[in-house]
Each structure stands twice: as structure tokens, then as C-alpha cells.
């Protein structure tokens, strides 16, 4: 049974970075210090924990970071944490540094690590940090709003040149396993087609036919938003150009979507979630994930959260298709 008395809180960021993680770190640090606790920052996620890259954090250490993208604590992926031996080592290091409450900012994989640590007596709280929006227990994840706005602005620029040249443009957005960035950009940028990993059996011949018909209807460009999980944008562009005779270009937006100054929404939501993580620990809670649903900040048991499933809302996808008329 974990000791629920919290004196020192540790905080780490894990998995892919996301804009707004710094706002969450700042909120954890300042809320905890304000409530008389000590705060330790763990660099480079679970890998840094294994390597004991642990520093004390003061209120001034998190000055001037709310507006910065990335994560001041840096992040990593750590194979060792997936093993039982690694998890025991991580728990022992937390105990060695007096970390009795740990805030883990990351995605489902990072939460699985937090769950293992909770089972080993470390009180843990997960905060949803990913640009992919693919965490089932929450309608909001730290970083999605910034990433989708970054992608949207870039796609607007591609559209300008696409229309001028009457071209087809395939724009690849991030999302190896999730199509939320693609879906939102598809709607926000008025794309003709949205290709998502969840709908992986798309019909390229049907797209080619649609491009030909849309030319007849007077469309001056044809925008395809393609998620990273489908990929192959460059070859797809060659095939489409050959089949339709319409000049086709591919643009892979890549990691620019993960960086940049967080939007107001990401700063505010991440700040509230960071504070809530500390409050939950002080209420004696552990093995929980903070989420946002129906206008409220809530928390779920990690086991329950990891068991939830999220799928692309069909109604939204149907609307995107309808609006591409
Ligand atoms: P995300 O947190 O964004 O889903 P990953 O899936 O890469 O990103 O997970 C981040 C890190 O969390 C991994 O590198 C690993 O250290 C840890 N992790 C992932 N899955 C597990 C697991 N099943 N058990 C323990 N730790 C895990
Ligand atoms: O953080 C999420 C994400 O950006 C996914 O959309 C993408 O598939 C993955 O991370 C790429 O991660 P990396 O290039 O850091 O391995």
C-alpha cells in the first residue's frame, strides 16, 4: 500500500513532445511550491529517471517558459521502462530521491509506465500530452490545439499556390496511428479528401475519378490531407499526376507541427491540468489521469483510462465529405 503523504513531487515529460508541456510543468512546480512541497524535475522522461537525471526546481526555474514550445525537461522514449526490472529500478530511484508523488506528462504509453510505478508504491498522476488527440478518456490533449493551428496555417499557404497553378496538393500531417489532425485540418482547410489511418482502405482510383470530375465542375485545385499513418505522399502525387494529367505536388509538414509557441488554449488547459495533478496527489489520489470532458476537468483511474477506446467521429467525417462538394 502506497504512503499517501506527499512531501516531494517529481515531474517528467515522456514520449513525443507537445506545445503546452512547459505550461503544465510550470503549473505543477508553482502549485506544489505554493502548497509547501518540494519539487524535483526529471529530465528526458523515464530514461532520465533511470539515469538519475533529477534536479530541484524552484519557482524561478519555470519563469519565461509558458510561451515556449517543446519541454524544458526534454523527453525520451525508454525501452528499459517496459521491463519489470526497469520499472522496479525506476520506483527505487523515485524513493531514493524522496519522490512520493510523480506527475507524468505524455500519452498512453507514458501512462502505462505511471500505472506500473503506482503498483510499486509511487503515487502517480498522468496528464494527457500529445499533438495527436488520441487519448480516449479526454476530449482535449495538451498540444493538439497548437499543432492543428500550425498545420492549418501551413495548408492555407499551400492552397494559395495550388490554386494559382491549378494543381492537386497532397499535404501530409502528423499522426502515425491517429487521424484527428488530418480530420480537423480537412474541415478547417476545406480539403477535398481526408486520408486517415482509421480509414486505411481508401480507394485511390475513386480519388482519381473525383479529381477528374471536380475539374469539370470548375474546381481550381484539389487538396488532399494525408495522415502520416497512410504516408506515401510523394509516390501518391506521382501516381495521381500520371492518371489525371493534373500537376500534383506533395508537402510533408513533419515535425514543424510539434514545435512553436503554444496557443492560448494549450497554455490555459495545460496550466489547469498541471495544478489539478498536484491537488489530486494532495487529496491522496494515485494511478489517475486528468482529462477534459463536457466542459469539465476530471480524472480517471489509469487502468480504466487505458481500457477506453476512441474512434474518429463518423458524423464529423461525413460533414467534411459533404462540404467538399
Ligand atoms: P506516449 O506516451 O506518447 O504514448 P510512447 O508510447 O512512446 O509515447 O511511450 C513513452 C514511454 O512510456 C516509452 O518509451 C516507455 O518508456 C514508456 N512505456 C510505454 N509503454 C509502457 C508499458 N507498457 N509499460 C511501462 N512503460 C511503458
Ligand atoms: O507525438 C505524436 C507524434 O508526433 C505522432 O503524430 C507521430 O507519428 C510521432 O509522434 C512521431 O514521433 P517521432 O518522429 O518523434 O518518432
UniProtKB/TrEMBL annotation:
It catalyses: beta-D-fructose 6-phosphate + ATP = beta-D-fructose 1,6-bisphosphate + ADP + H(+). Pathway: Carbohydrate degradation; glycolysis; D-glyceraldehyde 3-phosphate and glycerone phosphate from D-glucose: step 3/4. Residues 9-281 form the Phosphofructokinase domain. It is found in: Cytoplasm. It is an enzyme of class 2 (transferase). ADP binds at residues 26-30, 159, 190-192, 217, 219-221. Keywords: Allosteric enzyme, ATP-binding, Cytoplasm, Glycolysis, Kinase, Magnesium, Metal-binding, Nucleotide-binding, Transferase. ATP binds at residues 16, 77-78, 107-110. Substrate binds at residues 130-132, 167, 174-176, 228, 249, 255-258. SUPFAM superfamilies: Phosphofructokinase. Its cofactor is Mg(2+). Its EC number is 2.7.1.11. The keyword Plastid does not apply. The keyword rRNA-binding does not apply. Mg(2+) binds at residue 108. Allosterically activated by ADP and other diphosphonucleosides, and allosterically inhibited by phosphoenolpyruvate. It holds the Pfam family PFK. The active site is at 132 (proton acceptor). Catalyzes the phosphorylation of D-fructose 6-phosphate to fructose 1,6-bisphosphate by ATP, the first committing step of glycolysis. Homotetramer. Belongs to the phosphofructokinase type A (PFKA) family. ATP-dependent PFK group I subfamily. Prokaryotic clade 'B1' sub-subfamily. HAMAP family: Phosphofructokinase_I_B1. This is ATP-dependent 6-phosphofructokinase. It comes from Dorea hominis.
Amino acid at each position: 500500500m502506497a504512503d499517501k503523504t506527499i512531501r516531494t513531487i517529481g515531474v517528467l515529460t515522456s514520449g513525443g513532445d507537445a506545445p503546452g508541456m512547459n505550461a503544465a510543468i510550470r503549473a505543477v512546480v508553482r502549485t506544489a511550491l505554493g502548497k509547501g512541497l518540494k519539487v524535483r524535475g526529471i529530465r528526458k522522461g523515464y530514461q532520465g529517471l533511470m539515469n538519475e537525471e533529477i534536479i530541484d526546481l524552484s519557482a524561478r526555474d519555470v519563469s519565461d517558459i509558458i510561451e515556449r514550445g517543446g519541454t524544458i525537461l526534454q523527453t525520451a522514449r525508454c525501452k528499459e521502462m517496459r521491463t519489470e526490472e526497469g520499472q522496479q529500478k525506476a520506483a527505487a530511484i523515485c524513493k531514493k530521491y524522496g519522490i512520493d508523488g510523480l506527475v507524468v506528462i505524455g500519452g498512453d504509453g507514458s501512462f502505462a509506465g505511471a500505472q506500473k510505478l503506482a503498483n510499486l508504491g509511487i503515487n502517480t498522476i498522468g496528464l494527457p500530452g500529445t499533438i495527436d488527440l488520441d487519448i480516449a478518456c479526454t476530449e482535449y490533449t495538451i498540444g493538439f490545439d497548437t499543432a492543428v493551428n500550425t498545420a492549418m496555417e501551413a495548408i492555407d499557404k499551400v492552397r494559395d499556390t495550388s490554386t494559382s497553378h491549378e494543381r492537386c496538393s497532397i499535404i501530409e500531417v502528423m499522426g502515425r496511428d491517429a487521424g484527428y489532425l488530418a480530420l480537423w485540418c480537412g474541415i478547417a482547410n476545406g480539403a477535398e479528401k481526408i486520408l486517415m489511418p482509421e480509414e486505411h482502405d481508401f480507394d485511390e482510383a475513386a480519388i482519381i475519378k473525383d479529381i477528374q470530375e471536380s475539374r469539370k465542375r470548375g474546381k481550381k485545385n484539389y487538396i488532399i490531407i494525408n495522415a502520416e499513418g497512410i504516408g506515401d505522399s510523394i509516390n501518391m502525387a506521382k501516381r495521381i499526376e500520371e492518371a489525371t494529367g493534373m500537376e500534383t505536388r506533395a508537402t510533408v509538414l513533419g515535425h514543424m507541427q510539434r514545435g512553436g509557441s503554444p496557443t492560448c488554449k494549450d497554455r490555459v488547459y495545460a496550466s489547469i491540468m498541471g495544478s489539478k495533478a498536484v491537488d489530486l496527489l494532495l487529496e491522496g489520489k494515485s494511478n489517475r489521469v486528468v482529462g477534459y470532458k463536457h466542459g469539465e476537468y476530471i480524472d480517471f483511474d489509469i487502468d480504466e483510462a487505458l481500457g477506453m477506446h476512441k474512434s474518429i467521429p463518423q458524423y464529423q467525417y461525413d460533414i467534411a465529405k459533404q462540404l467538399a462538394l
